[in-house]
Write a structure and sequence with these properties.
The protein has helices at residues 6-32, 46-53, 69-74, 79-86, 120-134, 152-163, 183-186, 211-226, 255-264, 267-277, 283-306; strands at residues 61-63, 140-145, 168-174, 177-178, 181-182, 202-207, 232-237. It is an alpha/beta fold. The protein has a single domain (6-303), classed as Thiamin diphosphate (ThDP)-binding fold, Pyr/PP domains (Rossmann fold, 3-Layer(aba) Sandwich), CATH 3.40.50. The structure holds thiamine diphosphate and magnesium ion (MG).
Length: 321
């Protein structure tokens, strides 16, 4: 177990709350019709991005997925620019041209969300190869889903990363579903981490709704990668609270299962309970932190609403063919 300061734990709690309230606001905006394009929410999975990214340095890299808002926030992304991007405004990360699934911030190592399932995995191999060649001691974390672990790109990437002993940690967010297919119907193994053995690397499966367990395990694997001892695979078992996208009718699973996860296995409620019990932070301060988080999201939304749409003549700029 790594000793964590109270300050670090409170910071992690704030990150989880920021993800939660950002996502709730985005959901509201989609339902109001203010957002165009598909939006995939990270609600219920906050402990994974938070626990992993809390181990990273500013110049470490991450690759993300179509469900990438949480990764971006946990790596230090600016929620005002994120909100502006999702609302299609010129102050957004991609001037409003990319939307929810294409947010990137190279200055803080976010190599981009990705609408291609399994698309981030080969990118992480290239980035980690570059870190190794440049001898920078940077680490790459590649987030992907349980569905993506059945793609060829997953297997090719882990193989190459192992052969070249690259500094990359593969983080599988097993949220039980790939669109409407339960993991048990698509995946040949119970624990995705078992697949690490095919590539001669370390594999672990952990409770992805326990942020401290995620942090401790990720820290160990990231340290190994940073020391030049090669890649690893970390499976975080969690649960997707929402549909695959906002608007998904979710006919393939019952409401009771979702409600049970929300009431019994909320990663934020669990961490909050731990911190109050351990007297890391008083309950009164928790309420203040929650209020401040909602204020931050209000500001981000205001910034986005007040920003302009890119002039039409600039739409074809920054396009590379
Ligand atoms: C190469 C490719 N195949 C299929 C799709 C359609 N698609 C989008 S998300 C998704 C499921 C992904 O599931 P998982 O990897 O578990 O991620 P989650 O949505 O659960 O976070 C699929 C099949 C796609 N975008 N790209
Ligand atoms: Mg999934």
């Amino acid at each position: 177990m790594v000793e964590l300061s109270n300050e670090k734990m409170v910071d992690m709690f704030k990150t989880m709350l920021k993800i939660r309230h950002f996502e709730l606001r985005v959901k509201e905006l989609v339902l109001k019709g203010s957002i165009r394009g598909g939006v995939h929410l990270y609600l219920g999975e906050e402990a994974v991005a938070t626990g992993v990214c809390a181990c990273l340095k500013k110049d470490d890299y991450i690759t993300s997925t179509h469900r990438g808002h949480g990764h971006c926030i946990a790596k230090g992304g600016d929620i005002s620019r994120m909100m502006a991007e999702i609302l299609g405004k010129e102050t957004g990360y991609c001037k409003g041209k990319g939307g929810s699934m294409h947010i990137a911030d190279i200055d803080i190592g976010i190599l981009g969300a990705n609408g291609i399932v399994g698309g981030g995995l080969p990118i992480s191999v290239g980035a980690a190869f570059s870190c190794k060649k440049r001898k920078t001691h940077q680490v790459v974390v590649s987030f992907f889903g349980d569905g993506a672990s059945n793609q060829g790109s997953f297997h090719e990437s882990l193989n190459m990363a192992s052969v070249w002993k690259l500094p990359v940690v593969y983080v599988c967010e097993n949220n039980q579903y790939a669109v409407s297919t339960h993991v048990s119907k698509s995946t040949s193994v119970k624990d995705v981490s078992i697949r690490a053995s095919s590539y001669g690397i370390e594999g672990r499966s952990v409770d992805g709704n326990d942020v401290l367990t995620v942090y401790n395990t990720a820290k160990e694997l990231i340290d190994i990668a940073r020391q030049g001892k090669g890649p690893s695979l970390l499976e975080c078992k969690t649960y997707r609270w929402e549909g695959h996208y906002v608007g998904d009718p979710m006919a393939y699973r019952c409401k009771e299962d979702v409600d049970k996860q929300k009431s019994e296995n909320d990663p934020i409620v669990r961490f909050e309970g731990y911190m109050v019990n351990q007297k890391i932070v008083p309950a009164s301060e928790i309420e203040q932190i929650k209020k401040e988080t909602i204020d931050l999201v209000d500001k981000a939304e205001k910034f986005a609403h007040e920003s302009k749409v890119l002039p039409v003549e600039k739409v074809t700029e920054d396009i590379f063919a």
